[in-house]
Specification:
162 residues, two-stranded antiparallel sheet, 61% helix
Amino acid sequence: MTLYEIGREYSDFVIAVENGEIPEEAINDTFEMLTGELDEKIDNTACVIKNLNAEAAAIKGEIDALAARKKSKENLVAYLKNKIAQAMQSSGKTKLETPRNALSFRRSESVEISDEAAFVAQHPEYVAYSPKIDKTEVKKAIKAGETIDGAALIEKQNLQIK
């Protein structure tokens, strides 16, 4: 029986007791049986949640390790490309073609900003901002008694499994 089915059966039982449909001598036995099934199912489901959390943490660890390996490889690629570029430039080569590779330089342009803070202050029209709501500050303001249109403090019940 699923957790949903046990919960529904438990609710139906409570309604039947309230309506007097269950004999008094059967109430305790049925209640204990349903409570035992529900408690066991909840306990088993909590164990599944713990296992899933452990798996998610292990996956995150692998993602972090792979991201570090990826960054290391990208840094090595950049380092090696820089070494090739230096060697070609110091020898006066602008291209090199072999049966396996074709290397050449191409022109590109990019903008370099020497002092970003000063640039932003002088040229705000070139700055793109993404709005980000500081929910922590909004929460503090609401708790302090401010009324903020479009924001409300909602109390939730979060299940904690240890």
